[in-house]
């Protein structure tokens, strides 16, 4: 037995299993107490005479425990190679994820470009204080108005590996597909600005590098909103919406973050 199952994370297998054993004994104790309760009283008696708060809290605790251990059991049933995919971030694993994401962005760009339209003159006027004129002329937008961008097929494979906090694509306000922005609902200034920040990031970093940094950021934080590429877009969009936002160059901001390895 190794003392550390994952030395790079500082997780002691001995300590983990000691705590697991303690939790298992506590669960057995709770199971025995519940069994004795079940022998003495019927479900109707408990529902009729039991304190509502105690019954509710007991049910919530039991449900939470069931869901937690069921999730662990699902991971135990996966082949070892699948359980380990992406957790170590090997070059091969990162390359596969980057390929998935890059291909998806290209495919969706081709899907939505024919129905997309250029920005209006008023939109260009507002955004000209933050983005280059060439970018504003180049970008195309499409409002789906009730329709939704479909869930990428590869997300099912990623979710099967145990990643549950994935982007909820059909309910995101906007998605940037290289130079085409799709809005799941109606366009808003904040969502448009956020999307255009991503467009600048793609232009500065290159599509593959953008995808790689997005994947690495997600693997580190395990959540869409912790990915530095997203954090920067949210931050700049918030700055844009301030009453006295002033004028700033999104491209300069992106170049600075890239130069300082903040992505």
Description:
There is one protein chain. The protein has 263 residues and is an alpha+beta fold. It folds into two domains: 4-79; 84-259, no CATH class. It is 62% helix and 7% strand. It is built from twelve helices and six strands. The protein has helices at residues 13-40, 43-49, 52-77, 80-84, 91-112, 121-127, 133-138, 154-160, 189-205, 207-221, 228-241, 250-259; strands at residues 4-6, 11-12, 117-118, 140-143, 174-177, 180-183. The chain has a four-stranded mixed beta sheet. A two-stranded antiparallel ribbon has the order 1-2. Strand 5 (174-177) and strand 6 (180-183) form a beta hairpin. Helix 9 (189-205) crosses helix 10 (207-221). It starts with a strand and ends with a helix. The model is unreliable at 1-8 and 80-86 (pLDDT under 50).
Give a quick rundown of the structure:
The chain is of the alpha+beta class. It contains 12 helices and 6 strands.
Encode the helix/strand succession as letters.
EEHHHHHEHHEHEEHHHH
Poorly predicted runs of 5 or more residues? 1-8, 80-86
Give the helix proportion (percent range): 55-70%
Number of strands: 6
Average residue-wise pLDDT: 85
What is the count of helical runs?
12
* Neighbour order of strands in the largest sheet: 3-4-6-5
Keywords:
263 residues, alpha+beta, 2 domains, two-stranded antiparallel sheet, 12 helices, 6 strands, 62% helix
Helix/strand layout:
Layout: E1 4-6, E2 11-12, H1 13-40, H2 43-49, H3 52-77, H4 80-84, H5 91-112, E3 117-118, H6 121-127, H7 133-138, E4 140-143, H8 154-160, E5 174-177, E6 180-183, H9 189-205, H10 207-221, H11 228-241, H12 250-259
Parallel strand pairs: 4-6
Antiparallel strand pairs: 1-2, 3-4, 5-6
């Amino acid at each position: 037995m190794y003392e550390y199952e994952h030395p790079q994370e500082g997780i002691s297998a001995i300590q983990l299993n000691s705590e697991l054993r303690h939790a298992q004994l506590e669960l057995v104790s709770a199971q025995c107490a519940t069994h004795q309760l079940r022998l003495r009283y019927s479900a109707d008696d408990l529902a009729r005479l039991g304190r509502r708060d105690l019954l509710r809290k007991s049910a919530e605790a039991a449900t939470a425990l069931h869901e937690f251990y069921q999730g662990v059991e699902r991971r135990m049933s996966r082949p070892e190679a699948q359980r380990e995919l992406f957790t170590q971030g090997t070059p091969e694993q990162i390359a596969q994820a980057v390929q998935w994401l890059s291909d998806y962005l290209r495919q969706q760009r081709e899907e939505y470009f024919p129905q997309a339209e250029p920005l209006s003159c008023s939109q260009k006027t507002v955004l000209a204080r933050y983005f280059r004129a060439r970018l504003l002329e180049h970008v195309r937008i499409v409002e789906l108005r009730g329709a939704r961008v479909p869930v990428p097929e590869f997300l099912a494979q990623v979710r099967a590996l145990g990643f549950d906090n994935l982007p909820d694509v059909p309910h995101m306000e906007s998605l940037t597909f290289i130079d085409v922005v799709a809005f799941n609902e109606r366009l808003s200034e904040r969502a448009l600005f956020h999307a255009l920040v991503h467009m600048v990031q793609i232009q500065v970093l290159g599509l593959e590098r953008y995808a790689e940094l997005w994947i690495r950021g997600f693997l580190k934080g395990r959540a869409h909103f912790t990915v530095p590429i997203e954090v920067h877009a949210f931050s700049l969009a918030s700055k844009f919406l301030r009453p006295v936002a002033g004028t700033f160059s999104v491209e300069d901001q992106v170049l600075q973050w890239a130069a300082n390895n903040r992505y």
